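Example 287, ligand flavin-adenine dinucleotide.
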Amino acid sequence: MKITEIFNNKQRTIYSFEVFPPKKTSPIESIYSKLEEICALKPDFISVTYGAGGTVGHSRTCEIASKIKHSFGVESVAHLTCVNSTKSDIDSNLDDLKAHGIENILALRGDYVEGVEPKKEFKYAGDLCAYIKAHGDFDIGGACYPEVHAEARDEVDDVLNLKKKVDSGAEHLISQLFFDNSAFYRFLERTKIAGINVPIEAGIMPVTNKSQIERMTSMCGASLPAKFSKIMQKYENKPEALRDAGIAYAVEQIVDLIANGVDGIHLYTMNNPYVARKITDAVGNLL
Ligand code: FAD
């Protein structure tokens, strides 16, 4: 089923997950048992990431998206990046997705990778959206940035670029993770002013271990509210307490987002069935 149909048919908040393929050095089957547990939570759909700069490759994304849909009965979305791809690479990816019965794509530009010369045939994700729209019957989603994409001139420039992406074919949007809901609400106001009328899901990342904290503070660009930083500092060396505090923080964010009528919650599961289950148990009745 197309994700747009899921949005159109549901009278409640959409609830979806993100998973990522295992590294090339691990067999693909190594995540199947975790996937099965995650799928058993019955989210509306699960999206599967595409390795940055093609490090993991399209085939694993496609294979896992297919497994989620056909073996575990949950609708799936394959992420697809374009900055390091030619049109012919994208053609073969689209053929592959079609052959596997995948109907939904999250169309991304992808990040520039040091030492890899970008291919230049696609400059922005919007170019990929337009190309996919012209070359197949796929539902197309896109990414958005409540706290502004790192390369954008400012928040106005970024939201106007987002409008171009939607006009090029993105039918719904999934946000970058954030820890401060008010940043997301201000972003929603900007999208309304810009005339963006597609559903926008809020990306929520439960921070449940120390290495995640370090990654969050060094690279994701999300602002860290004092309340969040205090919790992380207090429990950074107590793994179980940190896990539980991270889950509690994410649940609090989600409850507030649902109460404020967001279109959807997209949970970055980090392939962790325990965390996904705890959060789903806590918010399932609220959707
Ligand atoms: P774009 O929408 O092209 O935006 C990139 C920059 O260009 C922005 O600053 C924007 O303002 C500007 N821009 C856009 N269109 C125009 C235009 N027409 N004219 C001028 N400027 C423009 N990366 C991966 O490698 N694999 C993944 O699986 C993956 N999944 C992701 C999922 C989500 C939900 C999110 C939020 C990000 C994901 N990323 C992934 C990261 C993403 O690839 C990077 O953030 C990348 O830097 C931007 O990709 P984009 O699709 O948002 O780009």
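Summary: The radius of gyration is 18 Å.
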